[in-house]
Structure formats: structure tokens, C-alpha cells
């Protein structure tokens, strides 16, 4: 008698599970097309460089100012693309601010940036416009 009850209970459980699971199925995930979610964009940034006072001659000063302008433009491109980490430290004594330090840091890798325009100003400084196109591969970084 007990074995019949156990058999009937198992049969009832299997029937219930098969009926409840028969309506379940896996829905295949749709692959989103990259063009729909992400379109390539072009970022543009300007950098400025000043000739150093310790330059040996005007040619070296101009080249060093140009290099500084390129580095500044690349940093500005990275700030637009990846963001900036800001850290600060403040010291207060007797409710008076003693010191306040703010630092910004960008840590990234840039490849494919191109110089669009260079301007040599009368004071010896240089301005450089650079741009970079962020394609479909850039989006994979943030997944």
C-alpha cells in the first residue's frame, strides 16, 4: 500500500514537472548590430606648448614647444574619450585652510590620432589641433 502511494506521488510529481517545464524554452539572444548601438565618432582637441627658457637655439625651442603642444592635445583627447581621475587633499587647522592640492590623472593608450592643424604664434608658442575617430573597437573596452 505504501509503495503504491509513493509510486503515485512520484508519478504525480513527474507529471507536474513535465507540464510546468513544457512551456519553458530558451529565447535566443539577438545580436545587436554595432551600427545601431554605436556609431563611430570623431573627437577633436587642441593643445598648446610654450618654448622653454633653457633651449639652446630657436629651432630647438620651436621643436620643444611643438612636442609639448602635441602631448597636450593627446591628453585632451584622452580626457574626452576615457575621462579624468581627480584626487584632492586639503589640510585645515583651526578652521582655516592650510593647503589644498588637486591633481588630475589620465591613464590610457592612444593610437591613430592625427594632427589636423598647427599654428606657430608670434610669441614662440605652438598650438596643435588633433583628432581621432573612435570606431566599433572602442566600444568593446567598456563591455
Keywords:
143 residues, alpha+beta, 4 helices, 38% helix, elongated
Task: Describe this structure as you would to a colleague.
It is a single chain. The chain is of the alpha+beta class. The protein has one domain (42-143). 38% of the residues lie in helices and 31% in strands. It has 4 helices and 5 strands, in the order H-H-E-H-E-E-E-E-H. The strands form 2 sheets. The protein has a 3-stranded antiparallel sheet with strand order 1-5-4.
Briefly, what is this?
This protein has 143 residues and is α+β, with helices and mostly antiparallel strands. The chain is built from four helices and five strands; from the N terminus they run ααβαββββα.
Blueprint (SSEs and pairs):
Blueprint: H1 2-22, H2 34-37, E1 41-49, H3 58-82, E2 85-93, E3 96-105, E4 114-120, E5 126-134, H4 136-140
Antiparallel strand pairs: 1-5, 2-3, 4-5
Give helix % range.
Answer: 25-40%
Main sheet: strands, sense, barrel: 3 strands, antiparallel
- From the spread of the alpha carbons, the general shape counts as elongated
Biggest sheet: strands side by side, in what order? Answer: 1-5-4
Average pLDDT score: 78
In DSSP terms, counting alpha (H) and pi (I) runs of 4 or more, how many helices? 4
Please tally the β strands and state the result: 5
Low-pLDDT sequence parts = none
Question: Rounded to an integer, what's the Rg over CA atoms?
Answer: 31 Å
Q: How far do the termini sit from each other? A: 60 Å
Strand content: 25-35%
Which structural class matches the secondary elements? alpha+beta
Overall structural domain count = 1
Secondary-structure element order, N to C = HHEHEEEEH
